[in-house]
Specification:
- It is built from nine helices and 13 strands.
- The protein has a nine-stranded mixed sheet, with helices on both faces. A four-stranded mixed sheet has the order 3-2-6-7.
- The protein has one domain: Ribokinase (UDP-N-acetylmuramoyl-L-alanine:D-glutamate ligase), CATH 3.40.1190.20.
- Helix content is 32%, strand content 23%.
- By secondary structure, it is of the alpha/beta class.
- Helix 1 packs across helix 7 and helix 7 packs antiparallel against helix 9.
- The model has no long low-confidence stretch (mean pLDDT 93).
């Protein structure tokens, strides 16, 4: 099972703004970790969300959606705090800008008492961290404690997914990532995030530097320019983006991440040593699989990840080395 750590919220899309000041909004379930857990479940991989979800009416809908999607509920922590709202306005290219309304909200209210016991982690083979839950206390400190406790015992993945309108201090993000990346087996990051974190360096330079810190694989997504990846073995692969009829890019990175994790498990590479040794050709095929998943999401309104039947077959998994 994949344990996905982080937030769940409602995205409010600005559909129409009228001259009299009235607005028409389209509310969609969201939050990067929520999207990822749902995306994995749709790809046929068992997943659970470890996060705080409100007992308010929106939280009830979030919980019901997770249940309907087949996401494991045992890591959810129900909170009396309100649900986070995110106002989303997309530009002409479909790229979203977010305004978050969530100070003191349920997804930022995880404490050390909410951590699953070691017995409660039974069946979890991989843990994923990402987005503003990494830097919003007390949730951020709770996730840091989980990472320290489970490091080296399970496969770790990370997608920073920066939200500077939640935590505007980039140094806070840098410090958190500097602590997590050495513990992580797989990093997926957008070139936009890399420009925010390290504007003085190219995406390739930062990816190479992060790889030296310990991950087996670093993947960089570049929007309309595709993606590239660097493996610890020295393998490199690069692929173009899918050609699609764009609606918006909300959830595209989460669908890419879900396909990446699902694809690694399907091909027997959800293992640090086997991932580090992935050959360039197989890596390129995996990236194309992920780009297809991301492209399908971009052709839909909001975070609506694909199901397994919508994606191509992957190579038959090779048996692991003895």
């Amino acid at each position: 099972m994949f344990m996905i750590c982080g937030e769940a919220l409602y995205d409010l899309f600005l559909v129409e703004a009228r001259p009299d000041g009235a607005m028409t909004l389209d509310a969609r379930i969201g939050g990067s970790p929520f999207n990822l857990a749902m995306g994995l479940a749709r790809l046929g991989r068992p997943a659970g969300l470890f996060g705080g979800i409100s007992t308010d009416p929106l939280g009830e809908r979030l919980t019901a959606r997770l249940e309907a999607e087949g996401v494991e509920p045992r890591f959810l922590r129900r909170k009396s705090e309100l649900s986070t709202l995110s106002l989303v306005a997309a530009d002409a290219a479909g790229v979203p800008a977010y305004a978050f309304y969530g100070v003191g909200a349920a997804d930022r209210a995880l404490t050390l008492d909410d951590l699953p016991t070691e017995a409660g982690m039974e069946g979890v083979k991989a843990i994923h961290f990402g987005s503003y839950a990494l830097v919003a206390p007390p949730t951020s400190e709770t996730l840091a404690a989980l990472a320290a406790r489970e490091a080296g015992r399970r496969f770790f993945s990370l997608d920073p997914n920066l939200r500077l309108n939640v935590e505007p201090d980039r140094e806070v993000w840098r410090r958190r990532l500097e602590a997590l990346i050495p513990l992580t087996d797989l990093v997926k990051v957008s070139d936009e995030d890399l420009r925010l974190l390290h504007p003085e360096s190219s995406a390739e330079e930062v990816a190479a530097a992060w790889l030296k810190l310990g991950p087996a694989l670093v993947v960089v997504t570049r929007g309309a320019e595709g993606a590239f990846a660097l493996a610890a073995s020295g393998a490199r692969a690069e692929i173009p983006a899918e050609k699609i009829a764009l609606i918006d890019t909300v959830g595209a990175g989460d669908s890419f991440m879900a396909a990446l994790l699902a694809g690694l498990e399907e091909t027997g590479r959800l293992d640090r040593a086997r991932l580090a040794a992935i050959p360039a050709g197989e890596l390129a095929e995996l990236l194309r699989f992920c780009a297809r998943a991301s492209g399908l999401t971009c052709a839909r309104r909001g975070a609506d990840p694909p199901r397994r039947a919508e994606l191509p077959a992957l190579p038959t998994p090779k048996p692991p080395h003895p």
